[in-house]
């Protein structure tokens, strides 16, 4: 029996219809991915499925991981892993997971993929994580022309199908445009000839026309040309017009050089012999950390290692003078972004609000908002009515376009679709100011950052990016250690959820995991 049945359903906000569903079913043990660009209504659909709705029939318990759940004591990644563990070992027959790999480090991400592959629960995933989708999904729900459609197969095959479909749509549209233009040229030519015949007829006297037998021929030819032109015109009018396919647009956003973004490569921040604390507990030591104008620096490390804590404390110190002791450039201006940022400037619309605080031209603001997935209509909305994901992207755009000379960006790539991620990558690669970037996406951080610091084993150290990581023996050893850590964490998680588990056994597993992580680092 299906766990979820949806029939004749309209997914809508109070302002607009987003898409329709004729029929969609979640069967037991099915692994479904819901994929679509940002702002198309994926999270809205999930909320409406979970609400009491006559068009949605649910026959089993549903476990739900929301996209932006509030986090208190734990790091975002630790909190998400805790929630995922509760859901995976809970009683729900179906799990709906909205961006489950957001904020997860590489090892926890692999742990999650392994758990989802093993589970007998039905899954409905919303994600832009290609590795996750390729490893898990066997059915794809996607939105096309304001309608939910389904595809049976893995994610990579779905992408090939969509690419082929898009190529055919573009070819069909271009062929129709060529054919219509050719017919319009024929209409124009025949109308011209009909008019020419009529004009020639008027220049011939009646007696001459009769003498030469031309009158009837001219009239017949003229009528024939006019009739042919009219017939082709009607044919064009009746022909259904194909919708112009959407083509990918790669926008190159060039920030103008404001006074703030026109510095020499001077030192902006310098920290030496610091200990970073979280809730009065020391988490790691810094021997030396410095940033110059124009440098792009990455911060990497496991969930809970202290990356976000360090970024917050660095920002707070610049603003208030504590808790750290650092050198700071007197005219430093920091733009700080994290996923829970909710400090958007007031304005009649998000476009207007950003215009009020940014030194950039309106076209630059418009281009960046568009590249981050905002349609024209959404740009005109006030911040208060945006969805959670839209608010995150609006705050990101506001920070990127602000009058700053250094950006602190904590997981800015989370919840972005592939087009928006590419736009953000291109923007940061060209950004003239300094950047300190926290991310668990190695490809993203490697494409932007010139230098990287790793936090682990209670210390921060700079990574030698020229180190030979292509050595196959090293790579094999690293993979072995990662697999062992995942297996031990899997055992520990099961014990943690069992009320009569041995505390000594859990402690022993923790010691083994810590030792393996030291070897890995």
Characterize this entry briefly.
By secondary structure, the chain is α/β, with parallel strands linked by helices. It contains 16 helices and 18 strands. The chain has four domains: 4-153, Rossmann fold (3-Layer(aba) Sandwich), CATH 3.40.50.300; 171-238; 267-470, Rossmann fold (3-Layer(aba) Sandwich), CATH 3.40.50.300; 476-520.
CATH architecture of the largest domain: 3-Layer(aba) Sandwich
Number of beta strands = 18
Radius of gyration: 31 Å
Helicity, as a percent range: 40-55%
Runs with pLDDT <50, length 5+?
Answer: none
CATH H-tier superfamily of the largest domain: P-loop containing nucleotide triphosphate hydrolases
Mean pLDDT: 85
* Class derived from helix and strand content: alpha/beta
Number of helices: 16
Name the shape in a single word: globular
Query: CATH topology of the largest domain, which one?
Result: Rossmann fold
Mind telling me the CATH class of the largest domain? Alpha Beta
What's the arrangement of strands in the largest beta sheet?
Answer: 13-10-11-18-17-12-16-15-14
Strand residue percentage: 15-25%
Q: How widely separated are the two ends?
A: 48 Å
User: What composes the largest sheet?
Assistant: 9 strands, mixed
* Overall number of domains: 4
GO molecular function, one term: ATP binding
Pfam families: ABC_tran, ABC_tran_Xtn
Organism: Periweissella fabalis
Keywords: ATP-binding, Nucleotide-binding, Repeat
